[in-house]
Amino acid sequence: MGKTIIISNRLPVQLQISNGAITAIPSVGGLATGMKSVHSGGDSLWIGWSGLTEEDISPELEPKIDVALAEHGSSKVKLTEEEVDGFYYGFSNRTIWPLFHYFLEYSEFQLDYWNTYKKVNQKFADAILENAEDGDTIWVHDYQLMLVPQMVRKERPNVSIGFFLHIPFPSFEIFRTLPWREELLKGVLGSDLIGFHTYDYERHFLSSVRRLLGLEVSFNDISMGDRLIKVDSFPMGIDYNKFSDAAKIHYNKAESEQSELQQRLNTHKKTDPEAKFFLSIDRLDYSKGIAKRLYAFEYFLNKYPQYKEKVRLIILAVPSRSNVPQYQLLKREIDELVGRINGEFSTVSWTPIWYFYRSMPFENLIDLYTSSDIAWLTPLRDGMNLVAKEYIATRTDKTGVLILSEMAGSANEMNESLLINPNNFEQTADALHEAINMPVEEQKARNSILQKRLARYNVEKWANDFMTSLKSQNEREAANVSR
Ligand code: ADP
Ligand code: G6P
Q: Which family does it belong to (predicted)?
């Protein structure tokens, strides 16, 4: 049996150099955190970008970098600063990301970004070609590498290629605005199996394939010459046990073993057992709706003034893509909103919003999940949203309420949460009110169902389902060709 190669822009860790020493920090984002669990259990090779540019890497450092990555079963694709600008900050995050999240007005159509995207996709494809042999399985991930499947297929027709998109695939009306729409579709169609988080994304993709390329689509099969390509949805799960086990450890910690954050949160709980913590965790990204959430919080405090001094919103925003102007503007907007709302509502003994702009170690993430009565996750558009699933997994006593946006892919599997439209402040404020007053028995009933589902459809099952489907697709194709 051949080997498996995972390829994505991000690796499980990102490298940083300080004072000549290399440090590896865990990558954030659903792709890296999810795939890390799959990768650590097997003997696959993971190829991607280390986070450093060629200009950062001196000849003396290079072997050390290779060793640091090898410890994580990874190998690097080298990118120059100019390539990172055009490919990562440019076409990936200033063209595709906004467009696929329905922020059409943010999407920039620049030929030089496109050219760099093509060039860098070829670099990733070349890295695969150096390592792959006939019979191997290649799993390509996400919007940064949409051209890679076809680039590999052209040179190595006898490898098996799967592609998974971790973000939404937009409706045809949005996708058609992209000048390079046919090229992107043809790139992805180099795969044998194409996976999405939800059936809607799958349907949008098939509609674009039919209308833009005129290919025959029957149910979820695409015919392209003598090839048969399968498209399907595989909602990504989490490493459920990792989160629930960590939560159990958290609850049993003696005070002296607790983190400062846990101690601080506990002290607040003890001082006022009626007080409620609302939790908001995301990368600082406009698609996550953090600014809208702040406006909705202000609306809630005005509509239900009885909760002043009783509720606290904890915002953890992880720095992300800070070279892109829209992210810089958003950071400023959020800083100002937090300042304004705290300025308007704070009292001597109460600050309504605690705002952290940083990445946190896993233990602190668990502290926040386990200490929060309500998780308030309301992206304007989100491929999946794993944070929602992680929150539920840590609620080992089954209490807690999840308020989730209908626009998150995870909403399809989390009907027992309070689903809201993040643009509707009235509905959001009422959902917060309902969550605060939800009887414990009802919380437990809802969370029991959610937990069972999440424990069953975990990330391992997701990866296995994808790989099994890819294998059976290869068998179908082989039978199709020999007919
Ligand atoms: P996205 O992939 O768009 O960032 P997801 O909610 O799907 O959104 O995934 C976010 C992932 O990043 C989760 O697995 C979460 O645990 C992790 N994460 C979120 N915030 C932090 C943080 N402050 N520090 C470390 N990891 C984080
Ligand atoms: C989303 C994307 C991933 C990406 C992650 C973090 O989850 O689907 O591909 O890795 O965000 O973003 P970054 O730009 O830091 O890789």
A: Belongs to the glycosyltransferase 20 family.
269 touches ligand 2 (CB under 6 Å):
no
* Per-residue confidence (pLDDT) for residue 448, from 0 to 100: 98
Distance 164 CA to ligand 2 centre (A): 13
Separation between Cα atoms, residue 16 and residue 26, nearest integer Å: 11
Terminal CA-CA length for the chain = 25
Q: Which residues of the chain have pLDDT under 50?
A: none
CB of 239 closer than 8 Å to CB of 458:
yes
Please report, for residues 335, 345, 396, the alpha-carbon distance to residue 340 in angstroms, rounded to integers and kept in the order given: 9, 9, 36
Q: Determine if ligand 2 sits within 6 Å of the CB of residue 29.
A: yes
CA angle 312, 315, 319 (to 5 degrees): 165
Is residue 136 within 8 A of residue 2, CB to CB? The reply is yes
- Ligand 1 neighbour 386 (Cβ under 6 A): yes
Report pLDDT digits (tens) over 421-458.
Answer: 999 999 999 999 999 999 999 999 999 999 999 999 99
Q: In this predicted complex, what is the ipTM?
A: 0.98
Q: How far is CA 466 from CA 45, 232, 236, 349, in A?
A: 17, 9, 10, 52
One-letter amino acid for residue 151 of the chain? M
